[in-house]
Amino acid sequence: QVQVQQWGAxxxxxxxxxxxxxxxxxxxxxGNFWSWxxxxxxxxxxxxGEINHRGTTNYNPxxxxxxxxxxxxxxxxxxxxxxxxxxxxxAVYYCAGVVSTDDAFDIWxxxxxxxxxx
Amino acid sequence: QSALTxxxxxxxxxxxxxxxxxxxxxxxVGSYDLVSWYQQHPGKAPKLMIYEDIKRPSGISNRFSxxxxxxxxxxxxxxxxxxxEADYYCCTxxxxxxxxxxxxxxxxxVL
Lengths: 118, 111
Hints:
The complex is a heterodimer of chains A (118) and B (111).
Chain A: E1 3-8, E2 11-12, E3 18-25, E4 34-39, E5 46-51, E6 57-59, E7 67-72, E8 77-82, E9 91-97, E10 107-108, E11 112-116
Parallel strand pairs in A: 2-11
Antiparallel strand pairs in A: 1-3, 3-8, 4-5, 4-9, 5-6, 7-8, 9-10, 9-11
Chain B: E1 9-12, E2 18-23, E3 36-40, E4 47-50, E5 64-69, E6 72-77, E7 86-93, E8 100-102, E9 106-110
């Protein structure tokens, strides 16, 4: 059964770079798209972007200029970098995967709270 | 402002049925049979409940059903139970420029 576990720094200052990593265990890493999704406190979900094992990426147009999603197939891991963060980037960040379905997020990480504050 | 429009809240009594709507456009909801629905309890990660408009993943109760008409998708919860109290989000593929969009979420209260 596929599971994911995520980690990364939880407290950043404005203008710093957010960095999170998600590891995939127990199943196929290849052949699936892996996404990052965030949720500001008390607000809804926002898709950030996705990557597959070949390194093909797609990004939310509103975040594209600041986002880099990368993959390390040797470790079955994918990572998120978000540059020049501000308080508006404060959110719970989730990694998620499309595994058993062809097009819906059926695997989710536990979430990482990232706070941007001076 | 979210790309997909959901009511902020819906409530019902135990045993009743409720329906949550999710309105998009002809460029997203109306163009693809790819609406999914997620249930989120406080402090927890979202959980997939419905995908491809109407399909239920393995292990999801048949009290949850999805439908779609034109640019509006709907999630119906029948036989409402206390454990169904949660936030629900719709989501869909929106083409090769926007990719994925979510609704603003609906808080379901069991009275």
